[in-house]
Amino acid sequence: MSASPIATDIDFNRDGKQMGYLRLPHSVHRSAYGWIPFPIACIRNGDGPVMFLSAGVHGDEYEGQIALSRLIQDIDVKDVRGRIIILPMANFPAGVAGLRVSPIDDVNLNRSFPGDPAGTPTQIIAHYIETVLMPGTDLHIDMHSGGSSLFYLPCVMPDWAANCVMPQARIAELCRLFGAPYQITFDEDKEGRYISAAATRLGIASIGAELGGGGRLTGAYADIAYWGILRIMRAMGAYAGSLDHAPAPAETLVLPVKANQFAYAMDGGVLEHLVALGDRIADGARVALIHHPETPGLAPTPVQAIKGGLVVCQRAMGRVERGDCIGHWGGPSA
Predict the structure, then answer these.
(1) Domains assigned to the chain
(2) Chain-wide mean pLDDT for the chain?
């Protein structure tokens, strides 16, 4: 596979705090010799753990972008041991457009790994992340939210594979230190297209989070990400700064999420939720109605849960089409 066309002035082996851009050449009508600027920071101070922090893999997920931007501003190089690479807007074109996918190539970065250095811009940045930024990392932390279409309670997500050099119990402890009130685990990404799969291919421990969404920023959830990452970096020995003002981490409820704990719209219309985030629902519970104002006299279509659990995610948009996710839940039924 050919080398990446991405260039940068950042020297990942140099001590100090560096802030700049990954530059991906992009020739279009308005800019013949232009490049796409992916913001990046590298904070290094001698030997120590290597951390890679990412957010904005989906451009309409803001809590992580803000938390990582604050960390770039606030972390003093003297408090760092080792190296921290921070990529706050991993899919920059999607970020500035406020979209889940890039407006340039209509590609979802979190379904694009391991990427292609000769592909579209999204495929190229995926390849660069997996082949340049990730190798040698001791821990990857990736921040998500529900984006424009979904809203999540604050959840941390461990990602562990048999080839991971970090023990599973250690990852569980770091997830506890993150401080979110819920921990969710999904069925395996069998195709290996997610950014977390890129980490596990390299034997790297990866911790993710789903924090808010709905097309807006929830500041309290950005705070969870900010302080949670600092607590994890402190535990890893990568950060020696003060945490005197950090809130105590919340007690975390572990909620495995199975495929039959998702609900989907089988008709188009206007969505009405009948349960709330944080509710624990029974197997077969009616969770929503889909109304049909465009067809006078047509009764609403009910949506039922197959397997119940605690509601951690719901659709944020009012209109639905057949196949849209209504929400999902995790853990045991009511």
Answers:
(1) 7-255 (3.40.630.10), 260-330 (2.40.50.100)
(2) 96
